[in-house]
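Researcher: Good morning. I'm working through a list of sequences from a screen, and I'd like to move beyond sequence-only analysis. For each chain I'm collecting a predicted structure so we can compare shapes side by side. This is the next one on the list. No need for commentary yet; just the structure.
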Amino acid sequence: MKNVITSLLLALLVVAVILLSEDVKEQEALLDELVDKHNEHLKYTEGQMDVLINHQKDIEGIVSYLLEVEARRSFVSYR
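Model: Good morning. Structure tokens for this chain:
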């Protein structure tokens, strides 16, 4: 009788391990998918930052030009 109970417990343990390993595989797949989405989002964000930095440089160049033009006008008006 003792061997039957031990065998049943061992069989239950084996089933539990199999079920848990399947769950771990599913969780790993979900985690991999989440990491891929995160990496895609990082690439998108980096691209957006590059665009914003380029816009900032363009705006700084325009402001610099306008300040220079205004400085020339002020100098000409002063003369």
